[in-house]
Design a protein that fits this description.
Elements: E1 4-7, E2 13-16, E3 20-24, E4 42-50, E5 55-61, E6 65-72, E7 74-79, E8 84-88, E9 91-96, E10 101-107, E11 114-121, E12 131-136, E13 146-151, E14 159-160, E15 166-172, E16 177-181, E17 187-195, E18 198-200, E19 203-205, E20 210-213, E21 218-223, E22 228-236
Parallel strand pairs: 13-14
Antiparallel strand pairs: 1-20, 2-3, 3-4, 4-11, 5-10, 6-9, 6-11, 7-8, 7-10, 9-12, 13-15, 15-22, 16-21, 17-20, 17-22, 18-19, 18-21
């Protein structure tokens, strides 16, 4: 298909640091693939597993929108703005790094893994005042439909970031079909299958596959298995 890109789960970059297992959809750290640098302003999509009691020591970011989506377990966050919080499945966390922020992330539990997605998006404004936010979502509202979890608007559902991007999560039973309409002309959509099987615009996808599509007004999505969970990330395709 034209104007699409498929990233199968087993083609992602891999990193195993003992305490951390990570899969990189796009180039990150020691994984570099010139053909997989980004999808529009979507720069990083990391699928991380952190061992019990372990984590990322304090490190610095600037001029990046950083979104964390916990899938299992409890992740403790501390940052240079004075925030100390725990995020868990059902939460969404966002940091607008702006002029600079330092933070750490640790597995809060001593007996089980933390699994979470870390996503970086280029902002549309540089050197803004750093900002932190997290919310807990009602996961029941995304049964057989998409729930908005992120947008450019502080007044909309979900968290907000400094970019014309919209993220949605949906949980679907087998055979359910739905359409997603592009919210801003020129944006593309990158779909990440958290679990299950689905067909998006005639492309069959399996657990942890990624599929990007652009130059479209809407996309058709069909769940091919029970308990299919899909993350849709609508992002600008040009500019940062």
């Amino acid at each position: 298909m034209e104007n699409t890109i498929l990233h199968k789960s087993n083609t992602r970059g891999k990193a195993n640091h003992g305490w951390l297992e990570s899969r990189h959809t796009f180039s990150f750290a020691n994984y570099h693939n010139q053909e997989r640098m980004n999808f529009g302003v979507l720069r990083v999509l990391n699928d991380d597993k952190v061992s019990a009691g372990m984590g990322f020591s304090t490190h610095h970011h600037d001029n990046m929108e950083i979104i964390s989506i916990p899938l299992e377990g409890d992740l403790e966050h501390k940052d240079s703005m004075g925030n100390t919080t725990v995020i868990k499945s059902g939460d969404i966390q966002v940091m607008s790094a702006g002029t600079g922020i330092s933070h750490s992330e640790y597995n809060k539990n001593k007996d089980k893994l933390v699994k979470f997605l870390q996503i970086w998006v280029f902002p549309n404004k540089r050197d803004i005042k750093p900002r932190y936010d997290q919310i807990t979502l009602d996961e029941k509202t995304r049964k057989n439909k998409f729930q908005q979890i992120l947008s450019p608007n502080p007044d909309d559902e979900g968290v907000w970031i400094q970019q014309d991007a919209w993220f949605h999560l949906g949980n679907f039973e087998k055979g359910i079909s739905t359409e997603y309409k592009i919210k801003k002309s020129g944006n593309g959509v990158y779909a990440f299958l958290i679990r299950g099987n689905a067909t998006i615009e005639n492309q069959k996808l399996e657990t942890r596959d990624g599929f990007g599509i652009w130059d479209i007004n809407q996309i058709n999505i069909k769940s091919d298995s029970d308990d299919t969970e899909i993350l849709l990330m609508e992002v600008p395709m040009f500019g940062s």
